[in-house]
Amino acid sequence: MNIREIADVLEVSEQWIRRTIKKAVSDNNKSVIFGDRSFSFTMIDDEYDFIETSPKVEKLQETDTSKAWLLASDEKQREAILKQRLVRDYNNRPSSEGWKAFLKRVDRKYAKLKLNKTNLFRWNKIVRDCRAKDLVPLEYLLDSRGKGVSNRSYTDEQYKYMENLILENPDIQTVHIEQYMQMHFENTKIPSYATIVRMVSKWKRDPDNLFIYTLANNPSSAVSKHRPAPGRADSEIMHTNALWELDGTPCDVICSDGIRYAISAAIDVYSRRVVWVIEPSSSSVTLGRMLKKAIEKFGIPERVLCDQGKEYKSKHFAYTCDRLNIQQDFTPPFSGYLKPHIERFFGTLTRDLFTRINGFIGHNTADRERLANRQTFSAKKESIKKWNDRFKSGDDFAKNFANKKENLGIDIELPISIEELKMIMEKWTTHYENRKHSSIDMTPMEKWNSCGVPRNTISDPNVLNILVGSSISKKITKKGITIDKIQYFNDIFYDMVGEWMWCLSDDDLGVIYVYDLNMSFVCKAENYAEMGRSRNEHIASLKFDRKQIKAQKRLDDIRANKPERIEKFLDTKNETIVQDETIDIAIEKQNEVINKIKESIDTKKETKDDAEVLVNGRPIFNNLHDRFMWDFEHDTFDESTQKLAQKKPRLYEMAKEEWEERKLA
After folding, report:
1. Each residue's pLDDT tens digit, 527-553
2. Residue pLDDT, tens place only, 315-326
């Protein structure tokens, strides 16, 4: 729209509009407000061009949550996201590029999709129609196509056999894998040595194999590690919430609990205002909490720029962005320079704040060495002695932050708690947003307030709990609803036992939001004992426990059934070996000794099996649950049982509850 068209619509004079624009330009604003309507403007061919940017409020209702998307498989959801990104690239292509040239250009990028003219135009029409009707395109792009079959020079059985060899002995050489495969698949063609090298490399690079491979190498280490340019980059950003940069980084401060926390943050590129959350580890749940906090503070962004982190590429985050009509862009791997503003914020945070906090450990191992080398040799020895004294006295922080080689000489005095760190960071952030930045020549708050473009908001803030949380279908029992071993209850559940409900949750472990199968709100169920705890930390602990048990069981099964390959391999080489008769005699004598030892062991085992009752009168139990049940039944609750109950309180409470129900029955 030009000045004449706006004057006709608003029924005002062109002269008044020109005066208003002149004042806005002098105030360095890129938008103007006429009455209750807002317009952004740019200069094109010495004439002003206007675009209306009236306030837009997203009227998202709780019933808008799509069951079709929630019930779809992960594969279908990811395929739908890929289709929508293809349509977006097609609509953003150069005007001179036809559909044939476009498909040829992106064929490699979207190799997982069946690209042709029919599919491209059909998916583009679906997205266009959904946008026109204010619908979610992802829900209509869901498909049931299967995966393609790739050509390989090895079979699944051979790949599995190679995997078992690595897990049996992580230090095995590739040449030995080839020898064992030749022996095992003697009647089948095996891959070449070069192919086996690629197979091993592919298996070790697979993220799904990282934990079990680390566990096979060093179980203790596995548990400790896994238990988580020229010009201006903002030259095209003309108003607030036009672009957010998202990123995360480990905190360079060790807190009093011995944990190095992770920071997840977002920065509004136009104004440089920031929002952050700090959690024990980075995940999609942490990203959801940060996004919720940022939307409540700033409003809804038009576009977000992320790296290739798995939390940013998760299907839930993609669905959240699509529901809020947020364009999601990704930087190439190892391209932090494409997100300069958030990277600069993290650098300023470390240099201006973390270096002045007790517990600062440097950015990396090299910094730790540099900090340690500042001290003289005698000071190092004294520091090590003080640290070891704290470790021996049972200091929790000294135990968690072990005295490793790279930490020698670092004398950390009185590290702060995570609550104190959050409070200091909040105060520093307020100071950061109210001091002048050279890149914008004003403070972030002044820059934010100078923009006249209204921000997009959500009419019901509670809907954010759905957008950044998770959902699951659960049945109401007489004890309420149980999710991740946590029980939730509400008084109205007395009349609803046996009904199925959709349960939506945010990061607060003590609260869930209950909806019926038509996604109509029913109630809020609570567990007061878990109020304030992080669901992210609780789920991470449960997942890790299950993952460790499963991986350890798999390792035990593989190693228990490990065949004697080296003996069999050497036996195949006997044709060229000259036997020595004295070796056969020595082996016979050795076998006689071994047989006598085995007979002695079997005799002791039979004697042990006969003793089915211990000295204190209790039988031998397979697990603690049976032990507790036996003590309740025979009223033998002694000091040893009390110690076991204190050590395993949850198991004890379960046995006690079962015993009381049995007595009532």
Report:
1. 888 887 877 677 778 888 888 888 888
2. 778 878 887 888
Specify whether the CB–CB gap between 453 and 240 falls below 8 A: yes
Q: How many CB atoms lie within 10 A of CB 266?
A: 27
Task: Name the amino acid, one letter, at 323.
Answer: R
Rounded Cα distance between 390 and 381, Å, is: 14
Helix and strand counts by DSSP (H, E) for the chain:
27, 16
Please name which of 63, 57, 62, 50 lies closest in space to residue 10, comparing C-alpha atoms: 50
Residue 427's pLDDT is 93
Buried/exposed code over 501-523 (b: 16+ C-beta within 10 A; e: otherwise): bbbbbbbbbbbbbbbeeebeebe
Q: Which two tokens stand for residue 408?
A: 């020698």
**Of 152, 147, 89, residue with least CA distance to 123:** 89
Q: How far is residue 186's CA from residue 181's CA, in Å, rounded to a whole number?
A: 8
Q: Which candidate, 352, 353, 350, 374, places its Cα nearest to that of 362? A: 350
Question: Could you tell me if 264 and 286 are in contact, meaning their C-beta atoms sit under 8 angstroms apart?
Answer: yes
Asked whether the CA dihedral 401, 403, 406, 408 is positive or negative, the reply is positive
Phi and psi angles of residue 401, each rounded to the nearest 5 degrees, phi first: -100, 80
Q: Decide: 298 and 240 in contact? Cβ < 8 Å.
A: yes
Q: Nearest to residue 458, comparing CAs of 468, 471, 446?
A: 468
Angle at 246 between CA 252 and CA 248, to 5 degrees: 25
Torsion of Cα atoms, 92 then 247 then 241 then 270, to 10°? -100
CATH 3.40.50.1700: does it fit domain 244-313+323-361+412-452? Answer: no
Helix-helix angle 193-205:156-168, to 10 degrees: 70
Q: For residue 360, give the 3-state DSSP assignment.
A: strand
User: In Å, how far are 247, 361, 402, 406 from 372, measured between CA atoms?
Assistant: 30, 10, 15, 9
Contacts of 621 (CB under 8 A, 6+ apart): 627, 630
Q: In the prediction, which pLDDT does 639 show? A: 79
pLDDT digit string, tens, across residues 417-441:
889 999 999 999 999 999 999 888 8
Q: How far apart are CA 189 and CA 154, in angstroms?
A: 9
What single-letter DSSP state applies at residue 13? Answer: -
- The identity of residue 569, as a single letter, is F
Q: Which CATH class is domain 461-533?
A: mainly beta
CA angle in degrees (0–180, nearest 5) for 233-234-236: 110
Q: Where are the domains of the chain?
A: 3-54, 76-140, 156-226, 244-313+323-361+412-452, 461-533, 624-664
Residue 572: half-sphere exposure toward Cβ, Cα within 13 Å: 11
What pLDDT, in 10s, does the model give residues 58-114?
Answer: 444 443 435 567 666 777 888 888 998 899 888 888 888 898 899 988 888 888 888
Could you tell me if 140 and 130 are in contact, meaning their C-beta atoms sit under 8 angstroms apart?
yes
Distance CA 418, CA 227 (A): 19
Residue 69 contacts residue 138 (beta carbons within 8 Å):
yes
The residues pairing with 505 across neighbouring beta strands, listed in sequence order, are 470
pLDDT in tens, 157-188: 889 999 999 998 888 999 999 999 988 888 88
| Single-letter residue type at 488 | Y
- Chain centroid, CA 97 distance in Å: 38
Both tokens of 434, joined, read 């109210």
Tokens standing for 79? 């395929």
Torsion sign, CA atoms 72, 73, 74, 75: negative
Q: Please state whether beta strands 481-483 and 327-330 pair in parallel, antiparallel, or not at all (unpaired).
A: unpaired
List all residues 6 or more positions away from 221 whose beta carbon is below 8 Å from its beta carbon. Answer: 214
